[in-house]
Write a structure and sequence with these properties.
By secondary structure, the chain is α+β, with helices and mostly antiparallel strands. It is 55% helix and 15% strand. The protein has helices at residues 11-39, 42-64, 95-110, 130-139; strands spanning 69-75, 78-86, 116-121. A 3-stranded mixed beta sheet has the order 1-2-3, covered by helices on one side.
Length: 142
């Protein structure tokens, strides 16, 4: 066994090549995803959608006097729904007036017909008595 030497490959050389290959692969995947997103208009739809939602909020503040939260949903380039949620019930405005203002603002700002416009009101936390809350918690015990 004396005088025999075997060539041992360097462990470092393999890891450098593996890291470089992984980095190139990750860059290619990232470039592919960016190209697909830009090609289908996804990026534009999201950024423009937020601009349109903010514009709807501003229009409704001017029309109604209360700022709602506006959400939207796109599917394959089509505006499927817009949700307008007011922070509370508005006692001084009839529901028909609010619905008309929401439809008008959505149509004007999104410049596209929404399949559905949802009008909502936040009611805040639910009210329960302490006895009801204790009873509900005890039901979950084994």
């Amino acid at each position: 066994m004396q005088g025999t030497s075997a060539a041992v490959p360097s462990a470092r050389a393999g890891t450098v090549d593996a890291k470089f290959g992984a980095m190139v692969r990750n860059l290619l995947v990232l470039a592919l995803l960016a190209g697909c997103a830009a090609g289908c208009g996804l990026v534009d739809a999201v950024f423009d959608g937020f601009k349109h939602a903010k514009a709807v909020e501003n229009d409704l503040v001017a029309m109604v006097g209360v700022k709602p939260a506006v959400g939207f949903n796109w599917h394959n380039g089509r505006l499927t729904s817009v949700t307008v949620t007011f922070p509370s019930l508005l006692q001084d405005k009839p529901l028909q007036e609010l619905a008309g203002a929401a439809r008008t603002a959505v149509g004007k700002e999104f410049k596209q017909r929404a399949d559905d416009v949802v009008l909502a009101f936040s009611l805040g936390p639910s009210e329960t008595s302490a006895a009801q809350a204790d009873q509900a918690q005890n039901k979950n015990l084994p």
